[in-house]
Structure formats: structure tokens, C-alpha cells
Records
---
Amino acid sequence: MTTTRSSQSHNSQPLPIILVLLAAAAAASTPLILQAAAAAAEQDEKQPITLPGCPDRCGDTLIPFPFGTKPGCFREGFQVTCNDSFTPHRAFLAYAGVNQHIAEIYYKVGWHHPVWRTDHGNTALELIDISVADGEARAYGLVSSLCNAANLSGDYVAKCQNLALGERGPFLLSVTRNLLVGVGWRVEPKIMSYLWSAYRNSTYEFSLACLSDLMGMPKLLQLATNGSCSSRGCCQAALPEAAPLTDFGTWFTIEDNPMWQTNPCTYAMVVESDWYRFSTPDLYGVEVLPRRYPRGVPFVLDFSIRNGACPGKGQKPPPDYACVSGNSYCANATGGAAHGYVCRCLEHYDGNPYIANGCQDIDECKLRKLNPELYPCSSDGICKNRLEGYDCPCKLGMKGDGIKGTCTDKFPLVAQVIVGGIGGIFIIAAISFLILLHKEKQKTREFYQKNGGPTLEKAKFIKLFKKEELKPILKSSNFIGKGGFGEVYKGFLDNEEVAVKKPISGTMLENEQFANEVIIQSRVIHKNIVRLIGCCLEVDIPMLVYEFLSNGSLDDILHGKKKVALNLGVRLSIAVESADALVYMHSKTNAKIIHGDVKPANILLDDKFAPKISDFGISRLIARDKKHTGSVIGDMSYIDPVYLQTGLLTEKSDVYSFGVVILELISRQKATHSDGGSLVNSFLEAGKKEKKVTELFDKEIVAEGDLEILDSLAAIALECLNLDVDQRPSMTEVVERLLIMNRSRKS
Ligand SMILES: *[C@@H]1O[C@H](CO)[C@@H](O)[C@H](O)[C@H]1NC(C)=O
Ligand SMILES: *[C@@H]1O[C@H](CO)[C@@H](O)[C@H](O)[C@H]1NC(C)=O
Ligand SMILES: *[C@@H]1O[C@H](CO)[C@@H](O)[C@H](O)[C@H]1NC(C)=O
Ligand SMILES: *[C@@H]1O[C@H](CO)[C@@H](O)[C@H](O)[C@H]1NC(C)=O
Ligand SMILES: *[C@@H]1O[C@H](CO)[C@@H](O)[C@H](O)[C@H]1NC(C)=O
């Protein structure tokens, strides 16, 4: 590489400032050479993306090498068929073994073995677009459906997608860019993977990915809300990273459908994350989704060069090495080195690394016309492209740096002399400063690595904030409280009100674990669970950024200094909705989440008093660490005594804690009285002595006269508190009963 790398291209910020000051004295006498850049801008031909003489598109789809349609135009495995019987023409992957088909299976009602089965023959996979920069291609995948049979016998027909990418082929299903989505009154979509080599004679089924469950109760259908795939009518789950997905099908757990007259179909699909928007009418009608998307729904494939590996340092690349462009480099495939490698252009270069001279220097000055924020250059500066970056010197007669927008009129002569005089001292100070800064940067980098930064970068679900972005928020005037494991500050990021959690130093988290937990948490999307927006890893103990909720915690509202009036209706809906969030967490069966610390302080309320559960996952993380030291998590007033005995945290532990929350909601008394007695005991004793528990109820809601409802609430709570774990209801049952109560109260 022969580049005129200027010292400014290192990205170290203070350097330019020093250079500017040093240059200030000299600048007066150095004439600025005006644009030679105009000449360079002329060669504005379109950059090739294919081998010479090869067609570069099929219909609306660009086909960059290694893909290609004509013999000699593609690398093995990347052949594309362009079918001209469509207008515009459509592109299909032509590699042998890449195809999909629908297997149709007929089931008699109540009989879970197939009666007959039809294979609708293989069809080629249709391409949507290709991105060589990301090593990705998008294609159309078919939607699987499970519907009541057309003759309305109550029998049903499963039409299941089977997708084959070929075990040795260049394609893998992207784990980070797709989701498994299920739509229906009750649907449990699954992925079945056929691992031909290792288990040729068997199929390997990934454990269930998500569950949408309206339990066959028509009235629960109204819980489904547009847009949110939150297990009510629609569920979604991240794909398992356990095994590379090349040959698989989407299927269902087959169950009799008591609602087939109104909701005859459920669907399963592997689809690009954030592409599908759930709409409640999708629950009704026959084959709604397959009919709406007859070509299929977009999903993302990773592609790589399979037969080969990146050459080691100093090693000569093999003759069929794919990264042939200058200014390109080789990287392991996303599925790991076992899946070969991909080629990428170096930073500051763009284009196709798979062809000679494919990676071209990015002309920032041209791009900034479209996106001035990305490549700043003030109006007092002149943008000049150069290899690996660009410069923006100030206009004649000015000094400063146009990239930083610091162009100002030059110093008067006297000032220049002074600057020259103190220059020497300044240089010494600057060098010491640089050394300090370098150390600080190194530390930042180390923390980032240690905290799982590289793992989290791959998951595109969450934002990684820089230390500097959060720093302004972490000041005492923004402090809003102290949680179980850290301090909470309120602030603004990207025009959104957020709560930043800064763990107390000394809290130990396992770092790889931390990254995984954060990924899981960021994928838990439910309207009653506090949303994790992002985190900052550049500090010793990672900080977390959550959405901000204006009404604080249920604990504050119930027992805070300022008495807030809460009628029974509000309390009931707080109970229903927080229980619903717990149901959702418990039903995420690919990675079931147990909260482990359910209590009013962890139930936050938004401006409309809708509850959102917080602090889960992380509390479990701390638990895992503390297990070694023998102490326990959670607040003793809420903790399941059975868990204390066995050390085994289950969903039923959350059920116990939720029971205590209900008692607090109806009594407005703290779980532990000031004299050390417990609310649970007060209720248990009142219940035992057949004494009415009525006197324990909060007078404010007793006045509303719904004593029957209060009694039922107390009864549910006491069931949740049962010491025989098996006698406790599940959260699903709790929600169901609370809902019925809520309805009977309204009517
Ligand atoms: C193009 O598509 C049509 C319609 O699906 C199909 O009948 C035909 O065989 C395809 N042609 C090629 C060359 O694949
Ligand atoms: C419904 O149709 C299927 C397939 O055509 C058939 O096997 C089944 O016996 C039919 N059921 C009734 C009740 O007619
Ligand atoms: C599959 O084949 C392997 C080796 O041939 C054998 O050991 C294994 O038992 C077979 N599995 C099943 C489920 O038949
Ligand atoms: C969702 O949107 C559709 C129209 O797109 C509308 O018919 C339906 O009533 C909406 N459902 C809810 C629960 O708002
Ligand atoms: C690719 O992965 C292999 C094995 O995991 C590793 O030895 C190698 O350094 C990696 N190469 C690059 C370029 O990351």
C-alpha cells in the first residue's frame, strides 16, 4: 500500500489541536494551494461489481461477484438463475441442494399422527438482494401454516416450510438478523434442523422457541395488541446459536384447536428481525399470511467462501483465494472458521473485495453532500479527499480545522510571537498529556473487551454507549435512587428519557455471562417489562440504560411519603399486567427467565400507572455469583421459603413473591412491619382463626364496597403463598383469574 497517511488519520483527538497551534506561526507564510481536487472528482464512472463482461443485475436485483448468472461469472456455489418469464426478471439461487418446499400433512381431530402427507416439489430460493459488504443475502422464505381443514370437519392441515441451504454450500441462516415468529391464538413454532452428516438418520429438533398463548379463551383475544409481538397472539424468539442452520423446517406443536370456527389458522416463519408487524386481524381468516406473502417473507442468509481459510500472517494465499482486491482483508465467516471466510474492504474503502481493484477509496467529500453529519467540514473549510480519509483545511486567511468547525481568522502578528514562545513549554505538557490519554484509552479498551463488547457488537439489538455519552447524566442532580445493585440516574439520550443504572463498585458479574444476559434481556419485548435500551461496557462494571418511567416504583406509590390515591381498579390492573409480564417471562421456553426478586420496588409505573417489571436477569446474574458465598438474593420479605430451603429457583418462587405483592396491594402495608412482624403472617393468622381478613384491607378501597373482590384477591394471594409448591397456581392461572375478576367487576 502506498498511501500518504497524514498523522491526522489516527483518530486521536488532541493531536490536531496541537498541530494547529504549532502550525499557527508557520501558517502565515505558507501559501495554501487551491483545489487540485476538482480534477479527481471528474472520474465519476460507475464502479464495477462483477467480473469484466458479466451482467451485474437481474431485474431489480444487483448481482455482485462472487454471485453471477452466466458461466464464468460466478464462483462455485454462487450461481444465480435469472428467470425472464417474470417482469421484472427475478433472481434465484441455483446452487445444487438450495431449495425449499412445503410439506402438507393432514391430521384427524384429536389424532396427532398424520393421515396423509403431500410434498409440494422443491422450488429454487428467490433472492431479494445481496450485500457483499456485510456478507449477507436476503431471500424469500415461505410461511408455514396450521389450519382447520377446508371441509370444516375440525380436522386440520399443516403446511410446513422445509428449507435446504446445503450442508457444504456457501449459505447459513443468519442467527442475528432473523427471528422465529409465530402468529395465532395458540402457537408454538419450532425449528427442526436436519444435520445430515452427523445424524443422517435422525432429525435434530431445537427446543421450542416461543409460545403465543391465548389459552383458547375468546375473551383473551382482546389482549392481542397491534404491532407488539408479546406472546399474545404473536410471539417471537431469537434463533439458537447451538448449531449452524442449513437444512431445517418450521413446524408447530400440533394441538386441537377449540377456536377453529373464528381463528382457523396459526402461522410460523423465519423472518428478518423487525420486518413483520403483527396486526390482530391476522388471527382471523384462512391462510391470511401465506396469501398475503405468496412469494414468501424476507429472511437473511450469511454467505462465505467455504473451502478455505484465511491465510496466516506472512503465509502465501492459495491460488483460489477469494479476497483478490487490494485494500481488502480476510475475516472468518460469521458461523466460525469452520464455515470458511469472507472478504471485506479495509476501513476508508468501499466496494467489492472479491474482484480485482474492487475496494476503492471512499470519496468522503462526495458522500458528505448526501450525509454532511457523517463527514463534517464547515462552510469555512474546503473538503479534500485523500486516501484513507479526507481533510478540510480552512479557507485562505483562516486557521483551525474545518472538520472540527474551528476555522477562525488568523492570530495577529503579536499573538503569533507569543504562541511561538510558549510553544516549547506547551509541547512538553502536551506529550505528558498524550501519554496519560493513551493509558486511559487502553484501559477503556480493556474494560470493553472484558465486559463482552465483541459478543454484544454482533447482536444488533442493543445500543453500545460510549463512556462520554453517559458521563453528563451521572451527576448528583440527576440522581433518582438506589436500587438493589446500583445507583440510578435520569437523563436524556437520543431525545428519549432514560434511566441509567450504575452498579455499585464491588458488585461482581461474570463478564461473558453478562453479555449473554444483556442479549437475552434486550430481546425480551413486552409492554409490561422495562425495556433495556443499551449499555456501556467501557467501564470496570458495565452500566445499563433503560427506558425511564415517570411514576417511580409501586413501593414508592404504596408506601412513599406522598400518599397517592389508588382505587381498586388501578390496583387490579397493576396486578393483572405485572402478572402478565411474569407469564411472558416464564413462557420464554428457549431461555426461561425467572425473575427471582419480584417485589413492589421492582414494579415501575409509567405516567398512566401501567406497571413494568424491572431488574430481572441481572438479579439472577448476581445470584449466580453469590451462590458461591452462600448468601441469597432478593429481599427476605418476598423470598420463597422453599427456595431458601432447597436453593432451587423456579417459576413458583416468583409466584410466591407475587402473592406477597398482592397482599401489599390490598392492604397498603409493607411486607415487613416496623415491629418486625410480616404481612404474610398477619394474613395467614387472620385466615387460620377464621377471623375475617377484612380488617387488614386498606380502608381506602374497602370504602369502595367491593369486599367480594378483595376476598378473592386475598384468596389467590394465599394460594400463591402455599408452602407446597405444587399447590401454588402458575402465573398463567393467576392472570386468568385476575382477568375474570376484573371483568366481573366492570360489568
Ligand atoms: C421461470 O419461472 C417459471 C414460472 O415459475 C417456470 O415455469 C420456469 O421453469 C422458470 N424458468 C427457469 C429457467 O427456471
Ligand atoms: C375432510 O377432508 C379430508 C381430505 O380431503 C378427508 O380425509 C376427511 O375424511 C374429510 N372429513 C370429513 C368429515 O369429510
Ligand atoms: C444413526 O446411525 C448411527 C451410525 O450409523 C447409529 O449409531 C445410531 O444409533 C443411529 N441412530 C438412530 C436413531 O437410528
Ligand atoms: C389493528 O389494526 C387493524 C387495522 O390495521 C384494525 O382493524 C384492528 O382493529 C387493530 N387492532 C387493535 C387491537 O387495535
Ligand atoms: C479464524 O479462526 C481461527 C480458528 O478459530 C483462528 O485461528 C484464526 O486466527 C481466525 N482468523 C482470523 C483472521 O480471525
---
Amino acid sequence: MNFVISSDMKKIQMVDLKGQYTKIKEEVDQSVLDVIESTAYINGPKVHEFQKNLENYLGVKHVIPCANGTDALQIAMMGLGLKPGDEVITADFTFAATVEVIALLNLTPVLVDVDPVTFNIDIDAIKKAITPKTKAIVPVHLFGMCANMEAIMEIAEANDLYVIEDNAQGIGATYTYPDGRKVKSGTIGHVASTSFFPSKNLGCYGDGGAIFTNDDDLAHTIRGIVNHGMYVRYHHDVVGVNSRLDSVQAAILDIKLKHLDQYNLARQTAARKYNAAFAGEANIVTPSGLSGCSGICDTCDCHVFHQYTLRILKGDRDELVKTLNENGIPCGVYYPIPLHRQKAYLDTRYKEEDFEITNQLVKEVISLPMHTELDDEQIEFITTTVKNFVNS
Ligand SMILES: *Cc1c(COP(=O)(O)O)cnc(C)c1O
């Protein structure tokens, strides 16, 4: 296939961290230098400032910063006091960190299928998986799209379960209840985790993460756990971990937090343009939100497009990946293997027929370049290349 690329089109990147940094360089550089000068590298005032600002932004009582998003999940589960043998239900179609920490804590992961429209954990599948040993549900706001939290909280309440939101991909998304009430993702469950990995919607320049909760007692417990189980210096009341967000990363995040809504809006704008270009394509399914909306309709913005992920119905997804790469367009397959088929998480209880949707999605999904710096010419080139492939 031949396309004329205008010679001045910016090179297309999956994520353009440099372009984003360039726009806030002065502010970021100064803030980082200030931390270096201050020598308050660990638990410095910047960490506290960022924590407060994130609490205000999210409308949540407690943010507890930690070292990364995987730690955040683990610490949330430790804080809830989950015990070996407790069953924790999570989605089969997600990044492995979610199931990894469940297994690490000797809890029993129970993977369930996802919804074909939102890619998020399937409500009926959760109901079917509940046993007397079930203690928690971990919905993942996959690709930046809020899971159906109202239904999940209802199930949790009826069965006395904890809900831990894995908000690593969904920070800044707004969840709208059927009655119109709006809250931020990560503030609905009993506790939530997020990641500040550089490519996440709110990313730092290294590793970082945080735990959110509205529960004062749980917040207190977790603050001790992240700090070697200490509530009073050199008194170790529980077995904890060492998991900290350093001051340099907090300084960067505090600046980027001010731009988060604008960054998410840039992603949503790019997603709208992608959606418009793919409208009417019979072999392409564009991302969808809850109750059939696009996730970015007039009444809600429940999708912040950490990834922009298509389903390619007929045609060879792997060939499309090749074609895009040949044309200088990076893309990703998130995720190519269902967790229930990963060696580390095999379990004789799993039956292939219980994972019909995930098994289909891993063959069909492709994520296109998505970041805050995409321009119209790039989107036009990407969408034309995809459409030519699926119609050839
Ligand atoms: C990125 C991610 C994590 C892990 O975050 P790290 O900061 O890399 O440890 C966990 N869950 C999901 C869904 C993620 O996307």
C-alpha cells in the first residue's frame, strides 16, 4: 500500500512524552531543582503537597503515595486484612499486576470474563464466581474506561465484599451514576490504587503510585504498612513494606496534576476524531462506554483513553500490526494472552467456555497511538492506513 506522507508530518509515536515535557519544561525543571536544593528527597514537603492536591482533585479523603501501582494494589489488599485462601475476583483481560499481587499474598485469584462492549469485568460473571470464600472484587478501569461501579458496589454490599478499584489506567475519569451524580474513578470502592508510570495518564519521570480511600481507619492502617508497619517510630505493629513516592517524582506530578484535565481532554479529542474516521466501518468496533454511549458523550466522560483500542472483526489483526509498523505507525496489542492462560496463573478450575469474550478479544484488539500531542495530520494518516487495510 502506498500513501503520500507529507514530508513535514511529525513522526508518530505510541506515547509522546518528550512533546508533553517540552511544554512544561521550565516549570518542571525548576521544581526538580528546588527539591535537589532542599535535600528533602524522601517524604519531603513536596510529597505532602502533591498528596493534598490529589485528594482535592479527586474529592477523596485520603491519598497515600507509594512506590508504584503494583505496590499500591498489594498494600490496599494488605490494608483490608485479606487472609491466605480468601478468594479475590478480578478480570481475565487486564495487565498481570492485578492478579500477581493477589497470588503474592497467597490469596486465591478468581479470574472472570469481561464485557465485550466496555472490555471491563462482566457483572454476571462476578455473580457466578462468588463463593463463601470470596472476600473482594478488583475491577480494573481498563484503557481508561470506568467499570460498571454501581452494579459492582451493589453485588459487594449484598455479599459483604470489599471493592478495590485498580485505577492505574483511569485517573481523572468521571463516573456518572444513573441519577446524574458524578464522582471521580477511584473514589467509589472501599479503596483504590493508581500508577504514575511515565506513560499513564498522570505519569511521573520514573516510578510512582498511590492508594486512595475515604475510610479513615483504613487510611491509618495503610500509612503504617507503607512505612515498615510503623505507627510510632521504631514500633512495628504490623508487617509492612517499604514503598515511597520520592520527592522529585512528587514535584513533577504536582505540576502535571494541574494539566491532567487538559491532558485527558486532549486524549478524548483524539478519540473523537478516531471514532469519526472509523464510523460506518463494518469490520471495526470503536471503543464504547457504559450503556452504549461512547464514554465521551454529552452527559458523561467516563473514558479517559489511556489506550484507544479497536476490535478488528474480520481480517487479520496481526497483519494489520505489520502494515501499520511498515508505514511508521506504532501500535500495541493489549493484551495478547488472557491471564487464565498465563503459565503463572493456570488453575484447573478455569474452563475455556467461561472466557469466551476474553478469548475473542485477545485475537481482535489493537491499540492505536494515543497521547496528548497527536495532531490531525497524524490521525488522518493512521485512520486512512487502518481503513485501507480492513477494506482491502
Ligand atoms: C500500569 C498498571 C499497573 C501497575 O503499575 P506499575 O506502576 O507499573 O506497578 C497495575 N494495573 C494496571 C491495570 C496497570 O495498567
